Amino acid sequence: MHTKPAHEKAASLKSSELMRSREKLEASHKEKSLDALDGRHLNCDHHPRAWAHTGSWGNVRYMKETPFCLRVGYLFPYSMSDSNTTDFTNPSTFILLGIPGLEMDHVWISIPFFTMYAIAMLGNFTILVIVKMEQSLHGPMYYFLCMLAVSDLVLSTSTLPKMLSIFWFNSKEINFSACLTQMYFIHCFLVMDSGILMAMALDRYVAICHPLRHSTILTNFVVGKIGLAVVLRGGMLILPYPFLTSQWPYCRTTIIPNMYCEHMAVVKLACADTHISNYYSLSVAFLVTGLDVFFIAVSYIQILRAIFSLPTKDARLKTFGTCGSHLFVILTSYIPALFSSLMHRFGNNVAVHFHVLMANAYLLMPPMLHPIIYGVRTKQIRDRLLRLLTPKGT
Fold first, then answer.
1. Average of per-residue pLDDT across 339-358
2. Closest CA to 134 of 378, 393, 357, 322
3. How many angstroms separate the CA atoms of 2 and 138, rounded?
């Protein structure tokens, strides 16, 4: 009988060992994939195998092979082959959770939210009507006040209706485009609010420190240019927000733990390097808030110096009263925002629902408080409102 040479026996033995090694590795990979399916996650082995063949078992050499997870991708409902689809790049909807941890109390929480929205709408519309009807109020301060009222109306309407639908109807879904639109309007009109407050501080500075030149410095034409500059600044600075946000791929989750589409809350859901959005939003915050607060502070330092240089106490109180309402408005606008920022930076142990409530405070409170403060503290507005509410002949 013909026997195989020793070298052929060694080659055959080596080939059989390689086949057994391959079978063991495939069995191991199949076991891992089944475990991943049971656990509902993709535990994929991306390391190249230490063996592969190119046509015959005798010609064995080392080369990279397609990972097992890519060869069985059709078994998974969201496999890696689906990661480039539009569902991941541009999700159709986001989910707004509302106030995490307080879902059972949403109906009760909606009562103060609806009250604030009603007061904001009624108060700001009243300011607009009174200024339009009263000829004596056609001046720079009241024009800026009307700009602030319009900005507050848009800011409230872009957030409160969706919040109330979450509270009342559990309508948590928001379209991707609607989310980007809401994000743009919220941040754009927050920037406009800040610019209008700075313009009002300028008006108070000119009225108190240069009263004889007030009508020649702040003419209607100048007020119109300031208003246009405030609108353009807000619109142009915030325009990159939705543009950049729409470019990121979203392959993690579409759940936003908030009641509205805040810029950074949406950016955090992206599965890409979002440093551009992070740095840009931080730059806008420092540029807008920092510069506006600086100019407001400089204006009021000059105003206080002029007030304290007046000869009598009555004159000082009367002059300070003319800018007291604006000072209160500034405090109600910036303090909640500052407190919310500090809490996000240092309040790591604070409950999530408290974070969400504070994040909404600086959106909801100023539009409600602005018309109340000006209605109570401004004599011309208060007198005109009383005449409107009091029947004739009383």
1. 73
2. 378
3. 117
Instruction: Say if CB 130 and CB 386 are below 8 A apart.
Output: no
- With CA atoms as reference, report the closest residue to 126 among 387, 394, 393: 387
CA 117 to centroid of chain Cα atoms:
19
- What is the Cα–Cα distance from 378 to 141, expressed in whole angstroms? 11
pLDDT digits (tens, 9 = 90+) for 63-98: 333 333 333 333 333 333 343 434 456 678 898 988
**At 355, is the secondary structure helix, strand, or coil?**
helix
Provide Rg for the chain, Cα atoms.
32
Query: Which phi-psi region, left, alpha or beta, contains residue 101 (left: φ > 0; alpha: ψ -120 to 50)?
Result: left
Sheet holding 93-96, edge to edge: 173-175, 93-96, 255-256
pTM over 0.70, yes/no? yes
Beta strands in the chain, from DSSP E residues, in sequence order:
52-53, 60-61, 93-96, 173-175, 255-256
Q: Is the pLDDT of residue 236 over 70?
A: yes
Q: Which one, of 129, 141, 277, lies nearest residue 205 by Cα?
A: 141
231: nearest Cα among 130, 327, 177, 150: 150
pLDDT at residue 335, rounded to an integer: 83
The pair of three-digit structure tokens given for residue 240, joined into one six-digit string: 């990159």
